[in-house]
Amino acid sequence: MERLGADKATQSRKRAAKADHSDGFVRDVSAVKVGDCLLGYKAVQHRARGGRWNHFRGRMREIEKLIRHRHGDIVPEADDALIYVEVIASLALVEFGQEFVEVVLGWAARWLPWAGNADVEEIIYERTKVRYSSLSADALGHALHVSYAERCALDIRTIGAFDVPKAKRAKLQKQKRRQRDRSRKEQQRRAAGACPRADYLANSFSQARPWEAFGISRRTWERRGKPVPEAAISDCGSMPLAA
Asked: What pTM value is reported for the model?
C-alpha cells in the first residue's frame, strides 16, 4: 500500500509538471521577505527554457532566413538553386548520419517543390560517397555567396561571408562593440548631468586665458588667487539675472 501511494504521488507530480510546461511556462513559488522577516509566498511564472542550442537547427534556420530574404517562401527554379539542397545535405549528414535522407527530402519538398526526387537523391548520393566533416562558417558563406552586408542586415551568426574573412569580421565586431560601449557610457554621463567635452573646453581657463589681461603667467595668476579681469566682471554685471 505504501508503495502504491508513493507511485500515485510520483504520477501526480509528473502530471503537475507536465501541466506547468504545457503552455511553455514554468510556475515557481518564491518567498516574500522584508529583511529576515518572512511575509509569505507568491507564485512566479516565467517562460520555460528550451534544451541545449542545436548548431544544425540554428544554421538551418539562418539558411531559411536567407532564402526568404532572397527569394521569398520558395526557391525559384534556376541553375544554382540546388546549392541550398547540397548545403543542407552536407549539414544533415554530419548531424544525423545515414538517417539524413528523410530530413533532406522533407526540407527540399518544402523549399524547392519543383525539384524532382531524382535530382535530390542524386545530391544525397554524392554526399554519401565521401566522408564529410562539419562545414566551417566561411565555407558555408562561400557556398551560399553570402556577403558581409547581407550577413549584418539579416543578423546571421553561424554563416560567414565570402568577401570578409573571419579575422577581419572579428576586428569589425570588436570596433562595433567598442562604439556601442562608448555611446552607452556617454548617454549615462549626460543623464548624470555631465556637459559635453566641447562645452567644457570652450568655458575652460585654457580658452579664456584671464591671466593675459594682467600681463602675468598662469602660475602667478593662480598664486594670486585667480583674480577675474574687470572686463569680465562688467560683462557679468550687465547680464540679466536668471529667474
From this structure: 0.59
